[in-house]
Amino acid sequence: MKKCAPSFKDTWVWSPLLIFAILICVIHLTGLNAQLFLFFNKAHNLTGDRFWAIVTLFGDGLVAAVLLFPFLKKRPDIIWSVLIASLLYMIILHSLKRIMDVSRPAGVLSADTFHMIGQRLTKHAFPSGHTTTIFTLIGVFAFSFRKNSIYVWVFIFALLVGFSRIAIGAHWPIDVLGGAFLGWFCAWLGVTLADKSQWGFSRTAQIIYGIILLICTIDLLFLYNTHYVLADPAKWIIGGICLVWGMIEFYKVFQISQ
Questions:
Q1: Which residues, other chains included, contact 240 with Cβ-Cβ below 8 Å and sequence gap of 6+?
Q2: Mapping DSSP to helix (H, G, I), strand (E, B) and coil, where does residue 13 land?
Q3: Is 106 helix (H, G, I), strand (E, B) or coil?
């Protein structure tokens, strides 16, 4: 099942990184970060709160893990790549959050000047963790399938999830762009490193993934608090579908040697 990892010379690897980096520099140099946040934060006026609560749910680390369960048998390479990429980005992400210690909108702006959904967070803004998570997941999918149609649609979806972090009042635009850069880069690294290790594609690895993802799915369904009550129905639907589908795939893994 070894795949040919994308080269950093490939346009669809480096071009998003270049665009994210340019936008970060432009926003920082022009001082438009707060103004853009206040403008885009009004998106709830067009859609309502529930829409953005559901969209932002896909950037949650546990939800992202559960979404991998259905790929257990047919594409363990994707799970292996995401696992490696996630370990990389978590080290970088949490280091940057604590070193830079950027205040979130709720830690700078008065509550009556912007709209906020969910938990009130004030610290460790840069980069956005939800955005990093979704761009890592989507990046691995894009680099693994390498089809233009898939690339375009999943990339747009990742952008929407990243934008939701502004719409719900949790992050500045620069935080989102920083998370997108980090997630996309780590996704490429994850796919590249996973391609060099056959163990991650083995049946033993699949069984380990299956146990971990089953626990994650049960946690999501019955214990986990996303802090977005409006998104709870979507959480249960995602968890329920992935539990049934994932268990079918898990069963197939055990049938391989029989």
A1: 221
A2: helix
A3: helix
- 96 and 169 Cβ atoms separated by less than 8 Å: no
Residue 257 buriedness (CB in 10 A; 0-12 / 13-18 / 19+): exposed
Tokens of 12: 């669809």
pTM for this entry? 0.94
- 26 within domain boundaries: no
Residue pointed to by tokens 């040697």: 257
- 3-class SS of residue 5: coil
Q: Residue 256: what pLDDT?
A: 59
Q: Record the tokens describing residue 224, joined without a space.
A: 């986990």
| 22 domain residue, yes or no | no
Q: Cβ contacts of residue 231 below 8 Å, gap of 6+?
A: 50, 53, 54, 56, 57
CA quadruple 38, 40, 45, 48: dihedral, nearest 10 = -120
Q: In Å, how far are 104, 125, 228, 242 from 107, measured between CA atoms?
A: 5, 10, 20, 36
Q: How far apart are CA 107 and CA 86, in angstroms?
A: 28
What is the rounded distance in angstroms from the CA atom of residue 89 to the CA atom of residue 186?
6
What is the distance between the alpha carbons of residues 47 and 53, in angstroms, rounded to a whole number?
A: 11
Note down the domain range covering 207.
51-255
Q: CB of 10 within 8 A of CB of 190?
A: no
Instruction: Give the chain's domain count.
Output: 1
Phi–psi pair at 145, nearest 5 degrees: -85, -35
**DSSP structural state of residue 122:** -
Question: Which tens digit of pLDDT belongs to each residue from 90-138?
Answer: 999 999 999 999 999 999 999 999 999 988 999 999 999 999 999 999 9
